TrEMBL record:
GO molecular function: metal ion binding; metalloendopeptidase activity
Name by which UniProt lists this protein: Peptidase family M48
Keywords, alphabetical: Hydrolase, Membrane, Metal-binding, Metalloprotease, Protease, Transmembrane, Transmembrane helix, Zinc
Lineage, top ranks: Bacteria, Pseudomonadati, Planctomycetota, Planctomycetia, Pirellulales
Organism: Rubripirellula amarantea
UniProt record, GO biological process: proteolysis
Known cofactor(s): Zn(2+)
Amino acid sequence: MHLYYFLLVISALACGSVPPREVDLSNAVLSSLSMVAGWILLTHIASRMVSNYVKRGEVEPLDGAQIVEKQLDIFRWLGLGVSVLCLAGFGLARGLDVIPIVQDSMFLQSLVLLTPAVAITVGTWSSEHLYGVRLQYTDATISNYARTLWRSFRSGMAWLVVPVLILLAMSDALNSLPISATASSVLTLVGIALFVPLVLPWLIRHLFKTVPMANNDADWINELMKQSGARRTRAVRWDTGGSAFNAMIAGFIPPFRTLFLSDRLLDELPTPQIAMVVLHEAAHLKRRHVPLRMLGILPAWGVGTLVTKVLGDYSWAMIAGSAVGVLLTLVLLRWISYRTEHDADVTACRLAAKLAPEFPQLPADYDEACDALSAALYRVTFDQPAGRKATWLHPGVSDRVDFMRKFSQARSGDTAISHSPTLVSFPGSQ
């Protein structure tokens, strides 16, 4: 999960808890439109200026691309503040309760709340496309422009924004039924409980552009997943247009889960490294890391709810509770994610040593598996040095490599490593 997209959705929806008050809605809308449009204009001006430097030979093309990327990153992050200003400062969120139809729909309210931040993000994608057009890296046609924006949305925030909106639309539909509020709440909770493990993986699989994997790859990858304990997981080729090294698993309940392996990863990594990436993802399933991360959010929002109740007499109680919930979520998810990533790396190397006799694609022992996975981590970040640094959900590459090597065994196999006292053990792990 990209931290930016997570905060985009959370911060926007949290503004819905701003205490309502009478506002001039037309002024709020006009001010918000002006601010967002001005911000998008600034991103395009920034990209245009850098492209001019490159065209005049004052900046190298690669350096120019990196400058644009950094500038747009800054515009996106500052854009979150601009979004909050529009919603809470100008009063766009405060006036939702007086808009006909919108006031009775959580889905429509969320659309309004998400619009400023989403528009700013799309604006940065647009300015990035403009940079490519001006330097003739891509076509200037309207159709290509539309495809570029759609591809960016589809491979970025769509997997988070679309499910949230679907759940809210479902909640609206249940609340409109002629049943009691209690029954509606129970049905909503049941719907969410079924949506996350069953519908969400299917939805993500269709949001991401995928194609069938080559038969020779599909056969051994599916068999490797099966033998590693991740049975009934469908492996697909993730079509990113050759732009991304990535792998992920959507879902955690068989057969409603899919292993995504990006086109660039499959095309450019040697087979032993691909196999180690597959085992890393299989380890997340085997060790039940996904539900563990989901459960890790509950204490944070439990504390946030408690804060709201304690401060119930104050108009800003809901804001304070939401802020506490968001902050604790960030802290807990980071803590859990770092430990699960380290655990998945070590478990993948152990699995490789155990399954090597059955799979010629795998390294022969733990040490070789560690070398292959380390090489894969460095290879997928070779043209993005920033990707080697620690992020919200992933420890830095060097930290991961060092952690794996702590458990390097002098002999192959799956022995004494499980007795190491420093390897974190998680509830429900096998």
